From TrEMBL:
Record-annotated GHMP kinase N-terminal domain positions: 60-141
Primary residence: cytoplasm
Name recorded for this polypeptide: Homoserine kinase
Organism expressing this protein natively: Kurthia zopfii
Protein's gene: thrB
One example of a Gene Ontology biological process annotation: threonine biosynthetic process
Length: 300
């Protein structure tokens, strides 16, 4: 049996405007775990995006791994885990979802569970609470997910998207729970119908690779962005300037505070260069779409 593995999981953006809690897209920013069997559990963090103080019993990867092992009634051996992350915490780039997906994969490889992709989507969505970020990290590419009343999760996965994104990451955190408090408890029927139709058009245009139309509907959301905009630094400024510089559309990434723009791949670097002087305190970068999802390499 192998005793060392390298696990790579892409981060993600969710919603893309009106695809609230159902649309996810894997990004070329990664969480990596080097895992080996050990005498006792330990976590070593090798990134400024990961906490310096580590309590094993409270670590998200550890708690999720234990939960999964109990679900499948297997004995999870102690592991030494070295973690590397390109995903800032609480910025709307799927840092928690990627950790959940990585923890599931850790148990899968260490205990030889032989989980299917659907199994991983089911588990990660259940633990995360919705299928957007989690399924994108599992599958790669664009995922559109929904759970039927009987609990069955359905995922549509499209990998061949010829576009790129610019991400605007401020130096402030925004917890998902705080962002959810900004949302109304209910929506009037007519309002909800319009909001849902915008999500339908966003989905259809992405699948047809009609990015100009997708950009329009990214900016037409009624479900969450009108209520969260006040929590997002420079929200209107970024939307206005990116449009001037050629972006198809701009929306909040997940719950924020990161903002993300859909851009033609040939123009994304130029857009990033033009935006940096306007937001000197931001981490602004061009990001590709990850098509691979989880990747595991046996190192011993």
């Amino acid at each position: 049996m192998s005793k060392k593995w390298s696990i790579s999981v892409p981060g993600s953006t969710a919603n893309l405007g009106p695809g609230f809690d159902s649309i996810g897209l894997a990004l070329g920013l990664y969480l990596k775990l080097d895992v080996q069997i050990a005498d006792s559990w330990s976590f070593n963090h090798h990134s400024v995006h990961l906490p310096e103080v580590i309590e094993v019993e409270e670590h998200l990867v550890y708690t999720v791994a234990k939960q999964v092992a109990e679900r499948y009634e297997v004995t999870l051996p102690a592991c030494q885990v070295d973690m590397y992350s390109e995903l800032p915490l609480a910025r709307g780039l799927g840092s928690s979802a990627s950790a959940i997906v990585a923890a599931i994969e850790l148990v899968n490889v260490v205990c030889d569970l032989q989980l299917t992709e659907q199994d991983k989507c089911n588990l990660s969505s259940e633990i995360e609470g919705h299928p957007d970020n989690a399924t994108a990290s599992v599958c790669g590419g664009l995922t559109i997910g929904a759970t039927l009343p009987d609990g069955e999760l359905h995922i549509l996965n499209e990998k061949k998207l010829d576009a790129a994104f610019a991400v605007f990451i401020p130096n402030v955190e925004l917890k998902t729970a705080e962002a959810r408090k900004a949302l109304p408890d209910s929506y009037e029927k007519g309002y909800a119908v319009h909001a849902s139709s915008y999500g339908n058009l966003l989905t259809a245009s992405l699948l047809k690779h009609d990015y100009a139309t997708a950009g329009k509907f990214m900016e037409a959301d009624l479900f969450h962005e009108p209520f969260r905009a006040k929590l997002i630094p420079n929200y209107e400024l970024i939307r206005t300037l990116t449009k001037d510089y050629g972006a198809f559309g701009t929306s909040i990434s997940g719950a924020g505070p990161t903002v993300i723009s859909l851009v033609d791949r040939s123009k994304v670097d130029e857009l990033v260069t033009k935006m940096k002087p306007h937001l000197p305190d931001y981490d602004i970068k061009a990001v590709s779409i990850d098509d691979a999802g989880i990747q595991v390499t046996v190192t011993e």
